[in-house]
Amino acid sequence: MGSGRPRTATVLKILEGTARPERRRDESAVVPSGKPELPRFITLDADEREVYEWMVASFANVLIHGRPDGAMIAACAKKFVFVQRIEKKVTEFGAVVKDPKTGRPMRSPFEKVHAESSYELRRMMAELGFTPVSRLRFAPQVKGKGPEMQTWDKFD
Q1: Is residue 145 assigned to a domain?
Q2: 89 and which of 34, 81, 110, 122 could share a cystine (Cβ 3.0–4.6 Å)?
Q3: Based on the structure, what is the number of domains in the chain?
């Protein structure tokens, strides 16, 4: 956390009369229209294209994602395939390898790249709203705009 004055709860601001509506987040933000499209200047190999199509079909929400988001989804698909390929290398050579100079055990360079890339992939997917927790961030934007959600109220 940064230094400075502690934040004041919104409810307290409303009660005190110091709430400033112009500083509130606009819940009716404009969302670009259309299905995410792959820009023509981005090239994907067969595996990356397959992951891209899967991500658009499985995760992209027309109420949140638009045509310009195709570039970010393509970058996420590339990272996804890269992580899978590095994971195969870690499986092939192991997470611990012999140091070529000293002969002592050391962390595999592939394992380090895999860990860093997996972290970056999770961050990218969260940014796009592709993870379960990150979808909750977008819930206020989609509330009441999409198909009716199923609830458990009908069941005993």
Answers
A1: no
A2: 110
A3: 1
